[in-house]
Amino acid sequence: MNAPDTQAAPAGASGKTADDRATTFQAVDGDPEQHNGTTLLIEAYAVLWIILMTWLVLQWRKQAALNARLDGLERAIDRAAAKADGKK
After folding, report:
1. Exposed / middle / buried, residue 40 (Cβ in 10 Å: 0-12, 13-18, 19+)
2. CA 39, CA 56: separation in Å to the nearest integer?
3. Closest CA to 20 of 11, 29, 28
4. How many Å is the maximal CA-CA distance in the chain?
5. pLDDT score at 4
6. Phi and psi (nearest 5°) for 9?
7. DSSP helix/strand/coil, 46
8. What local confidence, expressed as pLDDT, does residue 8 receive?
9. DSSP 8-state class, residue 26
10. What does 30-62 look like in DSSP terms, one character per residue?
11. Residue 32 to residues 7, 36, 88: CA-CA distances in angstroms?
């Protein structure tokens, strides 16, 4: 048995140069798309909106906690000022 020729044909053997092959479009029949581009775009926007809304909710909660702490500090200052005025 003779072994099949495993050497690739030289670039000029097909009659086309590398530049010709690089600039032509050749359709390939293959499997259909695995993921639809529109679906991927919608999913990407949904993920970004979820991230944005989560960040906004966390910032809102953090701001509410800071406001509560500030209110407590203002009450403590008012009590200390009242005590100081009462001792005089």
Report:
1. exposed
2. 26
3. 11
4. 116
5. 54
6. -70, 145
7. helix
8. 53
9. -
10. -PPPSS-HHHHHHHHHHHHHHHHHHHHHHHHHH
11. 32, 10, 87
What per-residue confidence (pLDDT) applies to 53? 98
**Local confidence pLDDT in tens for the 88 residues of the chain:** 555 555 555 555 556 676 666 677 777 777 776 778 899 999 999 999 999 999 999 999 999 999 999 999 999 999 999 999 887 6
Alpha carbons 73 and 8: distance in angstroms, whole number: 81
pTM comes to: 0.51
| Sign of the torsion formed by the C-alpha atoms of 59, 60, 65 and 71 | positive
Length of the chain: 88
